[in-house]
Design brief:
- The complex is a heterodimer of chains A (49) and B (250).
- In chain A, 16% of the residues are buried.
- In chain A, 73% of the residues lie in helices and 0% in strands.
- The termini of chain A are far apart.
- By secondary structure, chain A is mostly helical.
- Helices cover 68% and strands 0% of the residues of chain B.
- Classes of the chains: A mainly alpha (49), B mainly alpha (250).
- At the A-B interface, α1 of A face α1, α2, α3 and α7 of B.
Chain lengths: 49, 250
């Protein structure tokens, strides 16, 4: 025992995985909401894309 | 507050590919920085491999603080200029600031368990951070429950200014109080071998954040335009459909 933390790769992968998941998930949610809003606006005002 | 600018709807959001360019550049930097942090940088002397979490945790913290500080600037600009674009920018900055702050707390918890032995501790840094997340979450909730766009924008700008008072408190909490959380690192306290992945990820998250903010601002502007749009068929003059500020200004 030298006081150093041994192993811990599970924690490292969890942190990186959650980071990727949250950033990608949020990007997808913004893209889907933007697409839905554009579609709704186009339906409400025909002729405007 | 000047009312004249609120008479018009926000400008039509652009469809340029600049946000996509920021997102791609940010993702590339994040991938490269994370690869360096995970496989090239040496393990830290005491924390071992668990320290590799810092290559995403610290850049997330910097950018979360940046997003929430930007929301404060947007709130001030909205109250000063009465321009809808600042309301849209504020909404986007708050949402992304809350996302990064939540992510920051999760990363911190995952790091704390093997190093401190607990997932969470009510030490000054973590407590002030939790207050910050709840305060900004409250601003988002407020925006959800107010239907009138002028009131929503004005009230949430004021609430954002109040909530943002906690940003410097979070930053200085580790210096002002006896905290379990370590002090901020600087180039003088970090080994050279740790610089590159830290900085690459910092710019990676910054670029991703800018790209997401631009897209989220477009969404907010589109939503505002449809909210403020005059009805298609109306027996009233078109100008009456737009929100009126106290004193008759629109």
């Amino acid at each position: 025992m030298n006081g150093a933390i041994q192993g811990g790769w599970g924690y490292v992968w969890t942190a990186y995985g959650v980071t990727a998941l949250m950033l990608i998930g949020y990007a997808v949610s913004v893209w889907l909401r933007l697409r839905a809003e554009r579609r709704r606006l186009a339906e409400d005002t025909p002729g405007i894309q | 507050m000047k009312g004249s600018a609120l008479a018009s709807r926000p400008s039509v959001p652009g469809t340029s590919r600049v946000p996509a360019a920021f997102l791609i550049a940010g993702a590339a930097l994040l991938l490269a920085g994370s690869w360096l942090g995970l496989f090239v940088a040496p393990p830290e002397h005491y924390m071992g491999d668990v320290q590799r979490i810092m290559y995403v945790h610290v850049p997330t913290a910097w950018n979360a603080m940046l997003a929430l500080t930007w929301s404060f600037v947007c709130a001030l600009m909205f109250l000063w200029r009465s321009d809808w674009k600042w309301d849209a920018r504020m909404e986007s900055a708050i949402e992304i600031g809350v996302l990064l702050s939540l992510l920051l707390c999760i990363q911190g918890s995952v790091w704390a368990k093997p190093t401190w032995g607990v997932w969470w501790d009510w030490d000054p840094r973590l407590t002030t951070m939790a207050v910050l997340v709840f305060a900004y979450f409250g601003v988002l909730t407020l925006r959800r429950f107010v239907d009138d766009p002028v009131r929503r924008a004005t009230w949430s700008a004021a609430a954002t200014i109040v909530a943002s008072a906690d940003v410097p408190i979070v930053y200085y909490s580790v210096r002002w109080w006896n905290s379990l959380h370590q002090l901020q690192s600087s180039p003088a306290t970090v080994s050279r071998s740790f610089y590159l992945p830290l900085r690459m990820n910092a710019f990676g998250i910054l670029f991703v954040m800018i790209g997401l903010m631009m897209l989220r601002t477009r969404l907010a502007k589109l939503h505002l335009r449809s909210e403020l749009a005059p009805p298609l068929i109306s027996s009233h003059p078109v100008s009456d459909s737009e929100p009126r500020l106290p004193g008759g200004a629109r």
